[in-house]
Write a structure and sequence with these properties.
By secondary structure, the chain is mainly β. 8% of the residues lie in helices and 39% in strands. The chain contains five helices and 32 strands.
Length: 480
Amino acid sequence: MPVYPSRRGLLRGAVGVSTALAISATTATARATADTGPSATLIGSSLLDARALYFVSYNGLVNNNSFQKNGLLTHQGYQYAVWYTADRNAVVARRPVGSSAWSVCRIGHTLSTNDSHNVISAGVSPSDGRLHLVMDSHSSRYFYVKSVAGLMSSPASHPWSSAQFGPVQTSMDGVALTSTFTYPQFIVSPAGRLQLSYRTGVSGNGQAALAEYNGSSWANLGNWSSNTGIYTSTHGSSSRRNLYLHGLDYGRDGTLHVFGTWREQSSSVMCSSGGLTNHDTVYVSSTDNGRTWRNSAGAVVGRTGSSPVSVTSAGLVVDALSPDHALMNQESQAVDSAGLPHALISYVPGRFAQCVTDYVSGRVANARPFHVWKDASGGWHKTEIPVALGSSQRSQLVLDAYDNAYAVMPYGRIVAASAGSKWTDWTMIYDGRNSLRAFGEVVVDHTRISQDGVLSFMYQEKSSGSTAPSPLRVIDFRLP
């Protein structure tokens, strides 16, 4: 397994150590790294679509559900965005990094239903330079499109047109994954293989699964989380569930990190039927590209395709919480330069309510975000971010080159904390509530930050009506 140097290691390695001057330079660099706190300098914004498709479903928008993760990405000097236009066409756009002009092309599919789960997710296969798109699914069949080879690895040599994309398929080049598909998310393994994470089944009765592309064909690796086992709360029991993922992220040492929360099928586990059956923040990792899963202590708790991770597996829970606090699923996560995992979670703390009777109004009134992270000794820490969500929706977590943390909250607010404080000094550094007019959640370009230190996120403005198309934009901030 390849071992990747840390960002700080790269800084140290770039300075010679053969002279006293070089030693002083190394010391100065280390001091600057430790002392550099978070900041976000607005550098520009751009319009993707003046009339993007707009409808509210499950309290969200199909063009701006943050769990799609790959709706905005950067590769080889170009940034790419995917969305549905007012006439329901799926489109993909690109621009050279630094430009405000986007080129748009249709890919031959129209959205089948007004369901905000039916997002478009994009991924890049490094081995052949293709762009892959999976879209329009919620516990149903899915639609898959891939580009010609080399489109992403040599973008300037390829015209941007629909001719660069193949036909719309309902399998992965002939590999059928499931007829109950939801939540596509692409990641690239340390070996350079494109992987697709998805859920098979339905809410409260489903399994997390993985597929993998080797540069010429797809293979279904199988399910890695279980939907069975007995969970018992103080109110009742449930025998079915699904694991909602906050994300999947490879660290520089090749470890795959996953946070999640369980959602129970039976509402008997809640104090009120108006709440959410989500409970507990769990964590697993894999050192073999998602084949074998371990808990926080390193013990094997599951194997993909044969013995999936279960609600009864030992040592999964890193932050315990009952189903009575409207814990949100599919929030966000990241891995720092030392290979340590971080997550954002949000719920209604007990000081406001011990029983959330309506999760939407309860979260809008009282939900708070929390930062959870693991230290080098294996201990877990949690800090409440002192900014009310004011929303039922999700935030996104990113880390800059100095491991400062940024939570991009609903309505385009950015709060941040310094690595030097051990992420305890959270404060708002940008408030876009009035200027952006964003509906709620945003889609962050998690790939661009490491490439050029820019935080980009896509947001859609509130509609003038319930379904009137509205502007879809990307805004950019320079990070340290």
